[in-house]
Amino acid sequence: MQIIHSAxxxxxxxxxxxxxTGLSAHVIRAWERRYDAVSxxxxxxxxxxxxxxxxxRLNMLKxxxxxxxxxxxxxxxxxDELKEILDKLNVIELPVNTQAQEASVGKLSSVKNxxxxxxxxxxxxxxxxxxxxxxxxxxxxxxxxxNSLIENFLIPLLAxxxxxxxxxxxxxxxxxxxxxxxxxxxxxxxxxxNNNPTAPSIVVSTPIDQxxxxxxxxxxxxxxxxxxxxxxxxxSLPAEEIAGAARYSYSNVVxxxxxxxxGDPVVIQELKKLRRSLGDSVRIIVTGRAKESYDSVxxxxxxxxxxxxxxxxxVLESLR
Length: 320
Prior knowledge:
Helix 8 (146-166) packs antiparallel against helix 9 (172-191) and helix 9 packs parallel to helix 10. This protein is of the alpha/beta class. The protein has 14 helices and 9 strands. The protein has a 5-stranded parallel β-sheet with strand order 6-5-7-8-9, sandwiched between helices. It has helices spanning 14-21, 25-35, 52-66, 71-74, 79-91, 99-126, 130-144, 146-166, 172-191, 214-225, 239-248, 265-278, 295-300, 309-319, and strands at residues 3-6, 9-12, 41-42, 48-49, 201-205, 229-232, 253-257, 283-287, 304-305. 59% of the residues lie in helices and 10% in strands. It is elongated and about 70 Å long.
């Protein structure tokens, strides 16, 4: 039964909420985890349940996002603030044919497209539909461009897939299939860029025991689109191999991605060894969500941290 009665109040299952709001279960869960848009309860079996006020709030959020607002902008608005926004949308006629309006509409449309692509990708992942995953990425690149695709689609998508896998809502086989599709796409983008004899060179990899390679592959693609000659080595290489590749390719920069595990003593020793092997003239760039756990050794080896793709591009430009 979809509606659970308890102490005179109604509790609604995810299926009912999805039907009544027009939001998919994926979007509802994402809005909960990433934005705290609603806070459902849990029954004794740890299943989510929602109240009538949760449904009303989600309906208002959907109406606002359908009108062009980003969920990140309005997720924490009060019910009164959301009603005020919706009232204004109904009574205020916006001026037409102005540059400001066109820019605003284009930006809001892009936000909606990002979320739509992510939702569609996760649905196809659950259905083990790799052909649809391939076509979605190609369509997204055509519409968004490679830089926006990576920053606003692939990175949030990978974070959401990881959350679904960790919570048990996505099987490891589904996660591996999705990662393989993304990895294959990024590899094809990287392979399509030809070396330029006058461009600077960079080696991209992960230290030994860091097996998650999508972060380093994204770094490689970004460096390539920024005009660098990229030597991409894949994941989990010993320090001496990374240093050897840098010498062989005449690279003055090495970029590493640190995703998992955090604070690994083996990785710490490998980072120190890499600095000794490279010498002081080669710069080291580090990206990835686990890098903060290595702050001490990163300072010791004089590595440059990049917290976002924007930071990475700025660092690459400064080292150019």
